[in-house]
Design goal:
By secondary structure, the chain is mainly α. Helix content is 55%, strand content 0%. It has 5 helices and no strands.
Length: 102
């Protein structure tokens, strides 16, 4: 999707944008790839809580690792999940690491 025909199509789309809206398209508009849109779709599916299996079907993947790549977790979500372990209460198991004396 980076052949000359695709590059020309993206440039024509950027020019059409400028003609329609009277201002230049974002500088990256002409470099946007269809695959970039697929990544965006995958990330939005994951953020919406769509299961891995359903994302795999919607994205057209047969390999689960590709699905994980195309729908990478949001950094904020990962931080939130990691911070869950800092909130302890009486019902949360606590791990204590003991060192044996030498």
């Amino acid at each position: 999707m980076n052949a000359a025909a695709w590059r020309s199509a993206r440039k024509r789309a950027a020019l059409a944008w400028e003609t329609k809206y009277g201002k230049p398209a974002h500088p990256d508009f002409a470099r946007l790839r269809v695959h970039d849109l697929k990544h965006t779709f995958g990330r939005r599916l994951r953020a919406a809580g769509v299961s891995h299996e359903d994302r795999q079907v919607l994205l057209g993947h047969t390999n689960g690792s590709v699905t994980s790549h195309d729908s990478a977790a949001e950094l904020g979500k990962l931080i939130e999940l990691a911070n869950r372990i800092t909130r302890t209460n009486d019902q949360t198991p606590t791990l204590t690491v003991l060192r044996r004396q030498q």
